[in-house]
TrEMBL record:
Keywords: Monooxygenase, Oxidoreductase
Coiled-coil intervals: none
The organism's place on the tree of life at top rank: Bacteria
Name this protein carries in UniProt: Antibiotic biosynthesis monooxygenase
Length: 108
């Protein structure tokens, strides 16, 4: 599985444009074969900081995503709304790394 986290710092005056664009893009990415998760989260401390979490079944699915028409649009559009170049963490992980957090127990 491919595990990706992207930190995006948005220019304050472009927040609404960013939210409209990332909403459109997210819907398109979620329709891709091989996409497991694609979500955008806002920071609770920094109003213009966002994180994107993306998971793909394998490298081929990730490469297909990067080559897609909507990804090419997003990569070209993103510089118009960000305050700096986004930062990315990209890891290829074996199996399904999503597991229950052992430190948290649900109340009965």
């Amino acid at each position: 599985m491919i595990f990706i986290v992207i930190r995006i710092d948005v220019r304050p005056e472009k927040r609404e444009d960013f939210l409209a664009g990332i909403t459109r893009y997210s819907a398109q990415v979620r329709e891709e074969p091989g996409n497991l998760v694609f979500r955008c989260f806002a920071s609770v401390e920094q109003p213009d900081e966002y994180a994107v979490l993306a998971n793909y079944v394998d490298q081929a699915a990730g490469e297909a995503h990067v080559g897609s028409e909507h990804a090419q649009w997003f990569f070209g559009w993103l510089p118009s709304v960000v305050a700096s170049v986004p930062k990315i963490v990209y890891q290829e992980l074996p199996g399904d790394p999503w597991m229950e957090m052992g430190e948290v127990k649900l109340e009965s």
